[in-house]
Design brief:
alpha+beta, 5-stranded antiparallel sheet, 4 helices, about 25% strand
């Protein structure tokens, strides 16, 4: 084997490895830990929520303050956290990693995170859901609502998690 062929193979291998190795600077999907922190932050007699709004194949029909739609687009997303820091942490993750084309996967991931014994079959898809469950102890806990629904006035699918502290 000539030195030229060895060099080509080494270059190809190096190129392949550079595409398959995770970069130290690449962000990590931290949805579940952030979601658990959001739920745990809700105090007794307090209710907090966030909404991840997505539009696939069109633009939002209703602008959100200065962050409104720019018109027809392949996809749009925005997250409403109501200036609550733990909700903003979840929103930051959803804005980077959240699914726009398959918004049901965001709801399934939230349910599996907060109710670990709950699992969904491979290729299972949600189009809408309104699930309620409890997380915590008898003395201290949170009622959680995970909701996914279409908002035709907004022109979006809305994924919402609400936590009501007890």
């Amino acid at each position: 084997m000539s030195i030229f062929k060895i060099f080509r193979w080494a270059a190809a291998l190096l190129c392949l490895l550079s595409f398959t190795q995770p970069s130290a600077a690449a962000p990590k999907d931290t949805f579940c830990p952030r979601l658990k922190a959001f739920v745990a932050s809700v105090k007794p007699n307090e209710k907090r929520e966030f909404e991840f709004q997505t539009s696939w194949g069109t633009g939002f029909k209703v602008p959100l303050k200065a962050n409104g739609s720019t018109g027809p687009s392949l996809l749009e997303k925005r997250c409403v956290h109501n200036d609550y820091a733990p909700a903003k942490e979840v929103c930051d993750n959803l804005m980077y990693f959240g699914s726009v084309e398959f918004p049901g996967s965001n709801a399934m991931e939230a349910i599996m995170c907060l109710s670990p014994k709950t699992q969904f079959a491979r290729r299972f898809q949600l189009q809408r859901i309104d699930a309620e469950f409890y997380r915590g102890t008898d003395d201290r806990g949170v009622s959680i609502t995970v909701k996914l629904e279409e908002d035709s006035q907004l022109g979006a699918m809305v994924f919402r998690v609400a936590a009501d502290g007890h």
